[in-house]
Amino acid sequence: MVLAQLGGSISRAIQQMSNATIIDEKVLNECLNEITRALLQSDIQFKLVRDMQTNIKKIVNLEDLAAGHNKRKIIQQAIFNELCKILDPGKPAFTPKKGKTSVVMFVGLQGSGKTTTCTKYAYYHQKKGWKPALVCADTFRAGAFDQLKQNATKAKIPFYGSYMESDPVKIAVEGVERFKKENCDLIIVDTSGRHKQEAALFEEMRQVSEATKPDLVIFVMDSSIGQAAFDQAQAFKQSVAVGAVIVTKMDGHAKGGGALSAVAATKSPVIFIGTGEHMDEFEVFDVKPFVSRLLGMGDWSGFMDKIHEVVPMDQQPELLQKLSEGNFTLRIMYEQFQNILKMGPIGQVFSMLPGFSSELMPKELDSSNPKLMNESRMMRIARGSGRHIREVMEMMEEYKRLAKIWSKMKGLKIPKKGEMSALSRNMNA
Ligand code: GDP
User: Fold this and answer.
1) Which domains are assigned to the chain?
2) Which band of pLDDT confidence, cut at 50, 70 and 90, is reported for residue 363?
3) Which of 78, 81, 137, 399 is such that its CA lies 20 to 30 A from the CA of 288?
4) Is the distance from the beta carbon of residue 256 to the nearest atom of ligand 1 less than 6 Å?
5) By the 8 A CB rule, do 52 and 25 touch?
């Protein structure tokens, strides 16, 4: 079960429970069994799921809840907290500081997406004003250095490696020294992977780690590995001091849950997820917003961060004001999609959406009343854009869905950029 489906199943289970006239032991058990089934189908480790169920039952003591208590809300909150507990090891990962040199070493099996992720990680920081550098200490896989070199060149990130030298420790040390001299603040060391866990891989990793003394070791894991995730993560943790996890290929049909339970194995947090092969298909991973989204509770802070990232700064105050007044119009949706178009590949998907052209009139674009878009107007737009009426209707459905989300935000204080995390904490509290 992919994670989006998992979220849907959990939300449905909670909804079904809410529909019951009385929430008693039987109804609660049915809801929890449904959630357990969904989590297991997503490859989350059995023990974690069982503990979660026991904990929720302990917290939600129906007999002690006086009438009038919103049981649904209490149960939903308990489920939210327990899911967060699975994903949150309780201590944050080491965070490199801009301007101060940090060495970050990447480990993982071959094919997990390690080399790609090294560049994504470097590129992410470079965009935020860091001075990253890449060192290829993977002398095992033929072509590894070329791949890193190609990625690094594309992103204009300095790199170091060798076609001749076969000792990964030597390359790693030379690379780290060189970039320290060049005052790079984020030196990323890519190490060799193997097809499976084996003694030689772990020994090599250990030696590179000992020689370069990384401030942080990041374990890269492919989200499709399922139940094997727990053991694999633990094996790596036993050889090097894994401090954080990055889960890749979350865009595919992978179940994802297994890799997420790797957190429990390494006792280290997931800090980013990979969502595609492209350099910027890489997202910061935050437990609470992630679980919020999973349970269909919305992710306000993530959305605001996205707006800050995508929308030109000079348009923001006006836009945020309109949104906080609950004024979500087709023009806003159009402009947002236009901004997303600028971001790259995802734009290709949106460019296929019908009706986002001159076919819409100013009155239609600026109205926040979907009733204005009657059948004859939709027919006109379909004809003008050469699209099927069904597609225009789908666009209106999407608009109504987004408008409904925004109507819930009405009256919310508009956060400034630095206030995001505080707001997120409040929303999720
Ligand atoms: P390594 O052997 O661990 O260094 O793995 P690579 O970085 O060479 O990646 C293996 C394959 O996975 C490549 O084809 C990458 O483009 C692909 N890949 C890496 N990360 C992602 C991701 O987040 N999503 C998708 N769809 N593909 C990815």
Assistant:
1) 3-87 (1.20.120.140), 102-294 (3.40.50.300), 326-409 (1.10.260.30)
2) low
3) 399
4) no
5) no
pLDDT range class, residue 411, cuts 50, 70, 90:
low
Closest ligand 1 atom to residue 141 Cα is 2
CB of 110 closer than 6 angstroms to any ligand 1 atom? yes
Per-residue DSSP letter, 150: H
Task: Ligand 1, residue 250: give the atom nearest the CA.
Answer: 23
**C-alpha span between 216 and 205 (Å, rounded):** 13
* pLDDT score at 381: 80
Is pLDDT at 359 greater than 50 in this prediction?
A: no
Specify the pLDDT at position 422. Answer: 43
Strand extents, DSSP E, 93-146: 102-107, 132-137
pLDDT tens-digit series, residues 180-194 = 999 999 999 999 988
The residues facing 242 across adjacent strands are 217
CA–centroid distance, 257 to ligand 1, in Å, is: 19
Does 275 sit in the ligand 1 pocket, CB within 6 Å? yes
Helix, strand or coil for residue 420?
Answer: helix
What's 29's DSSP letter? H
Pocket flag, ligand 1, residue 214 (CB < 6 Å): no
Tell whether ligand 1 has an atom less than 6 A from the beta carbon of residue 280.
no
358 CA from centroid of ligand 1 (Å): 40
Residue 388 makes CB contacts below 8 A (sequence gap 6+) with 354, 382
Q: Reading across the β-sheet that carries 102-107, which strands appear in turn? A: 159-160, 132-137, 186-191, 102-107, 216-222, 242-248, 270-274, 282-284
Answer yes or no: are the C-beta atoms of 216 and 104 closer than 8 Å. Answer: yes
- Predicted TM-score (pTM) of the model is 0.70
Centre of ligand 1 to C-alpha 249, Å, is 7
Q: Is the shortest distance between the CB of 114 and ligand 1 below 6 Å?
A: yes
Index of the ligand 1 atom closest to the CA of residue 110: 2
pLDDT at 224 (0 to 100): 83
Long-range contacts of 76-80 (CB under 8 A, 24+ apart): 76/14, 76/295, 79/10, 79/14, 79/35, 79/295, 80/291, 80/292, 80/295, 80/297, 80/428
Report the alpha-carbon distance of residue 180 to residue 103 in Å, rounded: 9
- Could you tell me the end-to-end alpha-carbon distance of the chain, in angstroms, rounded to an integer? 28
Atom 13 (ligand 1) nearest CA: 113
Which residue's alpha carbon is at the smallest distance from atom 19 of ligand 1?
113
Q: What is the tens place of the pLDDT at every residue in 124-141?
A: 999 999 999 999 999 888
